[in-house]
Structures are given as C-alpha cells and as structure tokens.
Design a protein that fits this description.
The chain is of the alpha+beta class and 221 residues long. Helix content is 56%, strand content 18%. The chain has one domain (41-220). The protein has helices spanning 6-43, 58-78, 85-94, 96-109, 175-184, 187-194, 199-220, and strands at 47-52, 116-125, 128-130, 133-135, 138-147, 154-160. Helix 2 (58-78) packs antiparallel against helix 4 (96-109). The radius of gyration is 23 Å and the shape is elongated.
C-alpha cells in the first residue's frame, strides 16, 4: 500500500481545519442569534426598578430601602390595572414628578437632605432571581432613582409585572405575575426563566448570561 503523498496529507489537514472553523462560526452565529432573540423577548416583557444609595454606609443603605418601599407602594397603586410593559412605562412617565417628590419626602422624613435624580431609560442589569423566576443579565428598560451622590450599592427589582415584593424565602412568585410574563413571552423564553432545574435549560440560561455579560462589559469599555 503506497503512502499518501505529503502534499495530499497537508491539503486534507487544511480542509479539516477549514471545516472546523466553519463549524465553529456556524455554532457561534446560531448561539448569538438565539441569545439576541431570547434576550430581546425577555427584556421587552418587563419594566424594572433600579435604586442607587448615596453610599455604602449602613444608614444610607437603609434609607435606600425606605425610598424603594415608598416608590413601589405608589407604583403598585397607579399601575395596578396595567396589562403590559408599555402601559406601565406610560404610567410611570406620567408620574415622574410624583415619584421624585415621594423619594424626596421619604429622605427628608428620615432626617437627610440628599438630592434625587430620577429617569426612565435602558440600563444594564446583572442576573437576578425573584422567587422561582430568574432574569438573565442584560439591558432592560427601568425607572432609575439615584440618591445623593449615588455611590452606594444598587437595588434591583421588577416593577412590572410586580415581583418586587416576592417572598424570596418561599421561592414562589404569585401566579398572576407569572401569567402576565407568560402571556408576553413565548414558551421557550418562559421555560428558560422559570425552569432552572432542567440541565438543558440551565445551559441555555448560562449561555445568555455569558453573551450578555460580554456585551455589557464591552459597552462599558
């Protein structure tokens, strides 16, 4: 049996490498497209709250939570009939002055004179779990409240559907909140955020985290 000529072996190795590169690119593009589609669907279904404390001092962190509670009570009252994210944002936009005043009143009632900056925008969020619902890191529309110098730790939650008051220790999200999310998401997306016990779903979730974290890091640099 004649040995395969060196040139032919070299050519076959090149073809094999090329095929591996093409396969890698195909998998990467497919994964990237999947992540973009799923992340977009999830982010378009929720409206979040982001409160930043003046500092990491204990008193400032406690004040942050008091501002959070006051704002959420107001939001839950005015948006109790909202059926989707767009309605919730419209309601919040129409009451920006009230949100700011509520935050300022809470701050003053607790003996501080910090300023408050409040705005609605699209901001980066880390992965967060609310009971048995997990939202992957990514960019989400949110109401952001910055207290004073806004150099303290953040507090994140979901204003719509209302997940902010979920008893995390019980690990249960109210069924009405789940139904609201489910109605706005496809089956794939809802399964992804609500079924982390499945190894395949968990892998997909981690894949989204990886791509989104790279995206967030790149945007900050």
């Amino acid at each position: 049996m004649k040995p395969v000529p060196y040139n032919i072996c070299k050519r076959n190795v090149k073809y094999a490498i090329l095929l591996l590169i093409l396969l890698f690119l195909y998998v990467f593009v497919s994964a990237f497209s999947y992540v973009n589609a799923v992340s977009k669907d999830i982010s378009e279904s929720v409206f979040r709250l982001h409160v930043i404390a003046n500092s990491d001092e204990k008193e400032d962190q406690e004040l942050k939570l008091k501002v959070r509670d006051a704002v959420l009570l107001f939001m839950n009252d005015i948006a109790k009939d909202a059926t989707n994210k767009e309605e919730a944002i419209q309601i919040a936009n129409a009451h920006m002055d009230e949100f700011k005043q509520i935050a300022l009143d809470t701050i003053h009632e607790n003996g501080y004179d910090y300023s408050v900056t409040i705005k609605i925008g699209n901001f980066s969020f880390p992965t967060k779990t609310y009971g048995d619902i997990s939202l992957p890191s990514g960019y989400y529309d949110a109401l952001r409240i910055e207290i004073g110098e806004a150099k303290g730790k953040n507090w994140w939650c979901v204003m719509f559907p209302p997940l902010c008051f979920v008893d995390v220790s019980s690990g249960i999200v109210p069924e009405e909140s789940k139904e609201t999310i489910k109605n706005d998401l496809g089956q794939e997306e809802f399964t992804l955020i609500s079924n982390q016990d499945d190894s395949g779903i968990h892998f997909k979730f981690k894949l989204i985290e990886l791509f989104q974290n790279v995206k967030i890091t790149t945007a900050k640099n």
